[in-house]
Design goal:
The chain has 339 residues and is of the alpha/beta class. Helix content is 49%, strand content 12%. The strands form two sheets. Strands 1-4-5-6-7-8-9 form a seven-stranded parallel beta sheet. Strands 2-3 form a two-stranded antiparallel ribbon. Helix 11 links the parallel strand 5 and strand 6. Helix 15 runs parallel beside helix 16. The chain is globular and about 55 Å long.
């Protein structure tokens, strides 16, 4: 049984013969492992794809986010300066616009037409050609609220939730449509079975449940519904403590919700079990970063025990992980595939 098979079973609340295991994100780690830089590979779809395929061959993810750490490039193509001359994830150097007064100046038409953006999409099809029958491949992209925060700036978005909610909603809708224009063509490949939406700015450590319901949930649900209409799986990742919005996640109904170590897995199962598959939640900065392989295995086994049986669970990290993670610790986590 392939990794793709066991993840599909988890998404569909069947109990697979083993717990699916994966590493969410990891683009920077794989670029670093390959001895490349983002600037050095972004012009060549074959090079981009090779970094991801070789990363998969090394680790054997059951679930694989294609395009990981390339998700700031669309904002660069909107006009934001970027720094990408290392294996660190490309960093935005400022916001695209300075205030919502500039909202009408945004034009997403050139993003999809950009040659590098086309190459990023093509690279994910090449990855799917190579490994899409073995692992459940899905592209990852910022979710609308976090994308909007990168266009305007996170602090400005926080103020706008109170001071200019109408125009903030317009920016979120702009973000929704632009995100969809990028992930839809990637999902045209028969072996790309869905898409992930990463929404760190929607963290319960940053916004209230009411703010989540007003500004975040509608856009997430819109994209999740569009993905479902295509017969594909959807996944949402939100950092921090999301305990207070688990009921909202159940209402949004993604195929899978990826959560961080701050969330108790027993509580997550109580609310989401049988409704939404849960992925998590080994800390990427705890034993995984500084401990031994045995420490990593112990923490991972504690997560499996906290969830219990019944399926609907994927063992993974609670968030993306630094490129400096020792390969021995990465392999230790992935070794649980065999148990």
């Amino acid at each position: 049984m392939t990794g793709r098979d066991v993840v599909k079973m988890a998404f569909e609340f069947q109990e697979p013969p083993r717990t699916p295991v994966t590493l969410i994100g990891g683009g920077s780690w794989m670029v670093h492992l390959a001895g490349e830089t983002f600037a050095g590979i972004k012009q060549d779809p074959e090079k981009m794809a090779d970094v991801f395929v070789q990363g998969y061959r090394k680790l054997g993810h059951d679930l694989f986010w294609t395009g990981s750490n390339f998700i700031n490039y669309p904002l660069h193509f909107l006009g934001c300066p970027i720094e990408d001359n290392s294996s660190d994830g490309p960093a935005l150097l400022e916001s695209v616009i300075k205030s919502l007064d500039q909202l009408d100046s945004l034009n997403g038409d050139g993003v999809l037409k950009n040659q590098v953006m086309q190459g990023i999409i093509q690279s994910q099809h090449i990855v799917a050609d190579a490994i899409g029958k073995e692992t459940l491949a899905m592209p990852t992209q910022w979710a609308p609220f976090s994308f909007a925060a990168r266009i305007l700036g996170t602090e400005a978005v926080m103020w706008a939730t109170m001071e200019d909610p109408e125009r903030l909603s317009e920016l979120i809708q702009f973000s929704t449509e632009l995100i969809w224009s990028m992930i839809e063509p990637i999902m045209e490949h028969e072996d790309i079975l869905g898409a992930n939406l990463a929404d760190p700015v929607a963290s319960g450590d940053m916004i209230s449940p009411d703010t989540f319901r007003q500004f975040v949930a509608p856009a997430l649900k819109e994209i999740v519904d569009r993905i479902r209409a295509k017969g594909k799986y959807s996944m949402i990742h939100i950092c921090g403590d999301t305990t207070r919005i688990l009921e909202d996640i159940a209402d949004i109904r993604p195929s899978c919700f990826s959560l961080e170590a701050k969330v108790d897995l027993g509580k997550a199962k109580e609310i989401l079990g049988g409704k939404v598959c849960v992925a998590g939640n080994v800390s990427p900065t705890g034993a995984f970063l500084t401990g031994t392989p045995e420490d990593v295995i112990n923490e991972a086994n504690a997560c499996i025990e906290a969830w219990g049986g019944g399926g609907g669970y994927i063992l993974t990290l609670g968030c993306d992980f630094p490129k400096t993670i020792p390969i021995e610790n990465v392999m230790a986590l992935m070794s649980l595939k065999k148990e």
